[in-house]
């Protein structure tokens, strides 16, 4: 009982070897992983240079919304360097990492077990998140990491992740062309919408855990963002809810995992669904993943193109801004499998002037 009220410090170096884990990290039995290994999900491995890309992406987005891409133009050396930099950061002493500590209500910075943020069902992970603005407004990735971590630790990280985010943004826009074509709205529509994206980059580090069946690295959720491009190391742990059970997405060196998020589900007027997923941990090895969350400019109105709305397909979601949805996930609601519904219900309860932002 007493333990439940104490704020634990999630120090991976200590906790990954403990056979008892703090109660705040224990998830209820109906949400925790089952002892049987999850069967692998057969996700399409899409060659971005191939002729069939549009059809394959469209099919994947109408079923579970997850697919893998290869021949994506991201340099293998950059991917390796991005993982090396993650190691360099997460193996720093806790106090050094805490120089970038995430503050309440903010979506950027270093967070460890989310101990100060949530009271229960804590995720078994450390994260470092930062903003990437394609339009170049405000502080860039390199400046942010240098400012927070200092010359010794921040310089190299900043250079690498600035480059990594630029490449992810470029790839996202390419994927937006494919998504636009597959939805019949033309290649330019979503590309233009996201040209000045204001995205979030997140480094996820899941320490080993001696009680992997009682906790989760990332709880079940749909990404509230628009499109996620994830690179996982070769440890494994990403699972997707498909056909009524949890299924694993096996790591493949060089392939990127792509999935649709809630904001794109709204932009497609529900044609493409965001899909429930989670990350499990294990007792053998720490796991790393790099997630680039494509997001629109903060005040741009999220509204599906006219071609996707008609009498047979009325609007599924009201107009909203990414600023409002992001704020909802940071201040009012812990993102899960029903974030978008909870958000639209909440929006509708707000006084009229706050209901919709001015169209941009
Ligand atoms: C806008 C966001 C909120 C979360 C990060 C993200 O950029 C996209 C996914 C969200 C998240 C990962 C969904 C699961 C719960 C969460 C709290 C987490 O475990 O990290 C979510 C992120 C958040 O920081 O709120
Ligand atoms: O680490 C992973 O494989 C998934 C993480 C995730 O779903 C997220 O950060 O939104
Ligand atoms: Fe996710």
UniProtKB/TrEMBL annotation:
It catalyses: gibberellin A12 + 2 2-oxoglutarate + 3 O2 + H(+) = gibberellin A9 + 2 succinate + 3 CO2 + 2 H2O; gibberellin A53 + 2 2-oxoglutarate + 3 O2 + H(+) = gibberellin A20 + 2 succinate + 3 CO2 + 2 H2O. Transmembrane segments: none annotated. InterPro entries: DIOX_N, IPNS-like_FE2OG_OXY, IPNS-like_sf, Iron_ascorbate_oxido_reductase, Oxoglu/Fe-dep_dioxygenase_dom. Keywords: Iron, Metal-binding, Oxidoreductase. The keyword Iron applies. Its cofactor is L-ascorbate. GO terms for biological process: gibberellin metabolic process. One of its GO terms (molecular function) is oxidoreductase activity. Pfam families: 2OG-FeII_Oxy, DIOX_N. The keyword Iron applies. Residues 196-296 form the Fe2OG dioxygenase domain. Gene3D superfamilies: B-lactam Antibiotic, Isopenicillin N Synthase, Chain (2.60.120.330). Belongs to the iron/ascorbate-dependent oxidoreductase family. This is Fe2OG dioxygenase domain-containing protein. It comes from Oryza meyeriana var. granulata.
